[in-house]
Design a protein that fits this description.
Strand order of the largest sheet: 1-4-5-6-3-2
Distance between the termini: 25 Å
Shape: elongated
CATH topology of the largest domain: Alpha/beta knot
Order of helices and strands: EEEHEEEEHEEHEEHEEHEH
Low-confidence stretches: 177-182
CATH architecture of the largest domain: 3-Layer(aba) Sandwich
Strand content: 25-35%
Number of strands: 14
Helix content: 25-40%
CATH superfamily of the largest domain: SPOUT methyltransferase, trefoil knot domain
Length: about 240
C-alpha cells in the first residue's frame, strides 16, 4: 500500500482529511486513486493507520481509519546524531540517509572547523521536508526530531546529560565502537565532525564530558559518510 505523511491536525475521530494540493494531486494524477482503495497514513508518532479512501475531490481527500498499529520498521535503539554542519548538499544527503537508517534525533552542531555556521529558515524547511520524505519512502513511522543548531559547548552539555552510550568519531582513535553489554539496547549519542575534522582541543573537551573517541575504520571518511557509517553501526 502507498504511504502518506499527514500531521496530527488532519485527524478527526475515525477520519483523516486533507486539503493539501500535493496530496490531492498525488492521489488523483499520479496514483489515479479511486474511492475504496486502501493506503497507509502516518503522522510521525510511531503509529501507522491503514485507511480507506472515501472521498477524493479537487479540494479534499478523506480517509476512513480501518486499523491502527505500531510501525514495524522502527529500530529498537534510540539514536541521537550530533553532526557538525556541512555545506547544504552534503548535509541534505546526510539527513536523508541517516533518517532511512533509523536515527531518532538530530542535533546540528557548530564545531571549530565548520564552514557553515547556521541554518536559514528556508534551509530548515527544506531539511524537514527531506527527513519527512525519507521516512515516507523507507517505511518508517516516526519522524526524527531536528533540533536547533547548537554550539560545540552546548552540544557537549546536551549529550553529557543524556542516558546511554556516548561516542565521538575520530580518525586518530585506536578504539573501535562498543555495543552495550548484557544484551541491553541502550540509547546512543554519536558525534561526527565537519569536513576538516575535530581539533585536538575538541576531542579533549569531549572526553572530559564522558564522550568516548572511537574509530569508524582504517580509512578516513568524508564527513557525510562518517555520519552514515556511525549510525549504521548501532541500528
Amino acid at each position: 500500500m502507498h504511504r502518506f505523511y499527514l500531521a496530527k491536525d488532519h485527524f478527526f475521530g475515525n477520519y483523516i482529511m486533507s486539503n493539501e494540493k500535493e496530496i490531492i494531486s498525488q492521489l488523483s494524477r499520479v496514483l489515479r486513486a479511486k474511492e475504496g482503495e486502501r493506503f497507509i497514513v502516518f503522522c510521525g508518532d510511531g503509529l501507522e493507520y491503514v485507511c480507506q479512501l472515501t472521498e477524493l475531490s479537487k479540494i479534499q481527500a478523506k480517509f476512513l481509519i480501518i486499523d491502527e498499529r505500531p510501525g514495524e520498521r522502527e529500530p529498537a535503539r534510540f539514536i541521537t546524531l550530533y553532526p557538525s554542519l556541512l555545506k547544504s548538499d552534503k548535509f541534505e544527503w546526510l539527513l536523508q540517509k541517516v533518517t532511512e537508517l533509523g536515527v531518532s534525533r538530530i542535533v546540528p552542531v557548530v564545531s571549530s572547523r565548520c564552514v557553515v555556521k547556521e541554518i536559514s529558515p528556508v534551509k530548515l524547511k527544506r531539511y524537514q521536508e527531506i527527513i519527512r520524505e525519507a521516512v515516507e519512502q523507507c517505511g518508517g513511522a516516526r519522524i526524527p526530531e531536528l533540533e536547533p543548531v547548537a554550539s560545540w559547548r552546548k552540544a557537549l552539555s546536551i549529550a553529557s546529560a543524556e542516558a546511554g552510550e556516548k561516542y565521538i568519531a575520530w580518525e586518530n582513535s585506536q578504539e573501535s565502537e562498543a555495543i552495550a553489554a548484557d544484551g541491553k539496547v541502550l540509547p546512543v549519542n554519536l558525534f561526527v565532525g565537519p569536513e576538516g575534522g575535530y581539533s585536538e582541543e575538541e576531542i579533549e573537551q569531549a572526553k572530559y564530558k564522558g564522550i568516548v573517541p572511537v574509530s569508524l575504520g582504517k580509512r578516513i571518511l568524508r564527513a557525510e559518510t562518517a555520519g552514515i557509517v556511525a549510525v549504521a553501526k548501532f541500528v
